[in-house]
Amino acid sequence: METQPFRLTDRAAERIAEIATANGGGALRVAVLAGGCSGFQYKFELDRETTDEDVVITHGDAMVFIDPTSLDLLAGSELDYTDALMGSHFAVRNPQATASCGCGTSFSID
Fold first, then answer.
1. Rounded distance, CA 8 to CA 52, Å?
2. Following CA atoms 59, 65, 68, 69 in sequence, which dihedral angle do they give, to the nearest 10 degrees?
3. 93, 82 contact by CB (below 8 A)
4. Which of 3, 50, 106, 109 shows its CA 20 to 30 Å from the CA of 93?
5. What distance in Å separates the CA atoms of residue 91 and residue 12, rounded to the nearest whole number?
6. Helix (H/G/I), strand (E/B), else coil: 24
7. What is the pLDDT of residue 78?
8. In a 10 Å sphere around its CB, with 0-12 CB exposed, 13-18 middle and 19+ buried, how is residue 52 labelled?
9. How far is CA 92 from CA 39, 50, 52, 89, in A?
10. Is residue 40 part of a domain?
11. Which residue has better confidence, 36 or 26?
12. In a domain, 37, yes or no
């Protein structure tokens, strides 16, 4: 069985599908950008267009687009969705991250 380079939890997939349905379709684009408190930061946005280079990951009714450069920094990661009293958000569990910021969207790799 081949391991996916990036996985979605059931909760994340359900939330992505809900957001896409409420907005007339699309997928969640997950990207890693330079910047943030620790060197890199995650970016999440609804996107209806994929590029020829994008990796498309599906889980149930959810779709995620990731560009190849971001996928290198996300290899082995898992996207989860947390719905708590302090707020709801997507969170990436990235085994490559050696440090992260309290904001939860910034990380560094040695």
1. 22
2. -110
3. no
4. 50
5. 9
6. coil
7. 94
8. exposed
9. 16, 21, 24, 10
10. yes
11. 26
12. yes
Closest Cα to residue 62, out of 31, 28, 92, 90?
28
Number of domains in the chain: 1
In angstroms, rounded to a whole number, what is the distance separating the alpha carbons of residues 55 and 6? Answer: 10
What pLDDT is recorded for position 91? 87
42 part of a folded domain: yes
Prediction pTM value: 0.83
CATH of the domain at 11: 2.60.300.12
Q: Show Cβ contacts of residue 33 under 8 Å, excluding neighbours closer than 6 positions.
A: 40, 41, 42, 43
Query: Coil, strand or helix: which one is 98?
Result: coil
Q: Which amino acid is present at 88?
A: S
* Residue-wise pLDDT tens digits, 45-89: 999 999 999 999 999 999 999 999 999 989 899 999 988 777 788
**Domain limits at 21?**
6-98
Residue 3, both tokens: 């391991």
